Amino acid sequence: LGPNVTISMGVTIGAGVRVRESIILHGATLQDHSCVLNCIVGWDSSIGKWSRVEGTPSDPNPNDPHAKIDSETLFSDGKLNPSITILGCNVSIPSEVIILNSIVLPHKELNRSFKNQIIL
Length: 120
Hints:
five-stranded parallel β-sheet; single chain; mainly beta; globular; 0% helix; 17 strands
């Protein structure tokens, strides 16, 4: 776990899980050997074994005393710009799936991999 990880109470983390630069909210389950990088995992969400949920960091340099976040648009040329991945509450991701740079709205059961998508 770490660096820069916040884990709420009631979270279940399996063996061999990697979490970096992420927020894991109450009741989430990260099953064995899953990988969560640059993400927000919503309440009561579940990430299956050997799944990878990853976003692209766009933070300012923390070592620069005058760093600031540039205002970016969500879309460029009709496509979602790479950003952190956000899972809404009660999202279920099965085993061996990759979710990359995506936003998943609440109460979704995914059955395949997604990249640069907003899943309604």
